[in-house]
Amino acid sequence: MKKKLMSVLLASTMVLSLAACGTTGTTDTTTTSDNTATEAAPADTQAAETTTDAAPAADATETASVGSVRLLNGKPEINDQMQALAAKYKEETGNELIVETIGGDTNASDELKKMYQADNMPDIFVIEANQAANWDGMLADLAGEEWTNKTGFELIDSSMGTIGFPYTVEATALGYNADLLKAAGVDPASLTSPDAWKAACETLDSKKDELGITAVFGWCAEPTNLGWSSGTHVFGQYLDAGLKADDTTYIDLLNDGGKIDESRMKNFAEFIGMMNQYSDPALLIDGTYDNQVAGFKEGKYVFITQGNWCVTSPDDVNFECGFAPYAFEDGINTIIAGPPSYWVAYANGNVDGAKAFFNWCAGDSAQNILVNDAGLVSPFDDCQYEAVNPFYKSMNSYITAGNYSGWHTMLKKDGLQNETCNVFADYAKGKLDADGFVSTMAKVISGYYAQ
Predict the structure, then answer these.
(1) Which own/partner pairs from 42-47 qualify as long-range (CB within 8 Å, at least 24 positions apart)?
(2) Which of 111, 404, 409, 421 suits a disulfide with 227, CB 3.0-4.6 Å?
């Protein structure tokens, strides 16, 4: 994507350039640690040390040898492409990129805490914008690097400098199967009000057998495995749906001691209640990310509560994909588009190696793999490749029309998602009604901010 979305000044004086994220990287030694657990940390450390020790011999003929670099990848869906990226990096530079992939049911932030405590930090890892302060003094300043001249999407902190490398543009809303909507006679462009959504759900539900679907929504509120999704991405719709990208009304209210707009939250709660009603009960209560994505790809669900990262290749689906807004109030017609996270370089790690990789990653060879193979959307101005991601056409139509909201959910107090996800879960289980959802959210959020 060539268009720079915009820059937003964060409350903490960080500049959040609206691009996107994803994570990518790989190694030709295929060193991965899927579903990395605490117990696996020593083995990961040993593997990384072994590769690093061997690097000088492998790079002896290279004039720009910067040694081995470890990258923690939180996107298992593009692990294969990240491995190809690392192989290409090795081929072109002689330098080693070791990618350690964690599963979709593992929170990258939690995994990083474990790795830090085990003195097993990667050289490159992912942070959300509001997590930068947690790493104060531990991130390398990337200012002046060649790649910064190719994008306006870098993450800049007033005290730490240029700390975040953007590697893709991401969007989230309610992803849909356009073929199923067409078969049911539902126009996705009409889904801009609660009444339109209710009517569509009733129609789709009444035609489940005819359409061959399990449920209208592929929505999972299970907090242990998918709390990062409900507590961050879905909750983020309350904060931003329907707002312009630079409108911080509800995130400002939230960050002012944990306040909410109860009227807006009630409308949001009723919309979530509709999703609960028309979701696959097995997925809703006890599902996993893999279950959710697989069900959508197989045509079992018409809608999915994820973003463009859940389907990255045209080969993954045999139907057209699109985005519809969480229209819990009349007139909401936006998706959330922007940077949920960035790659950063650990200051006590191989900083020179990380910088070298970032500069290479912004170049043609890497962008070819990331865009054409991994299905990511490039944040770099000189990228010649248009995304092959099945959601890209719909995503780009919203952005081009200016109908996108910011990723302000990433500016809430870090860790709040671990609390709010449990409220979504209790609502899904029937322990709360819409009013109870609102009052519990208000109590949980204010309590968390008071800590």
Answers:
(1) 42/118, 42/120, 44/100, 44/120, 45/118, 45/119, 45/120, 47/98
(2) 421
With 90 as the cut, is the pLDDT of residue 245 above it? no
Q: What pTM does this model have?
A: 0.72
Helix, strand or coil, per DSSP, at residue 191: coil
Q: What is the DSSP string of 283-344?
A: HHHH--HHHHHHHHHTTSEEEESSBGGG---GGG-SS-EEEE---SSTT---EEEE-S-EEE
Dump pLDDT digits (tens) for 130-168: 788 899 999 999 999 999 999 877 888 889 999 999 988
The alpha carbon of residue 174 and the mean position of all alpha carbons in its chain are separated, in whole angstroms, by 14
| Residue count of the chain | 451
* Dihedral sign from CA coordinates of 135, 233, 162, 107: positive
Q: Residue 425: what residue type?
A: A
Question: CA-to-CA distance for 161 and 139, rounded, in angstroms?
Answer: 9
d(CA 407, CA 129) in angstroms, rounded, equals 10
Could you report the per-residue pLDDT of 56-74, keeping only the tens digit for each?
333 333 435 789 999 998 7
**202 CB neighbour count, 10 Å cutoff:** 13
- Helix H or strand E encompassing 71: strand 69-73
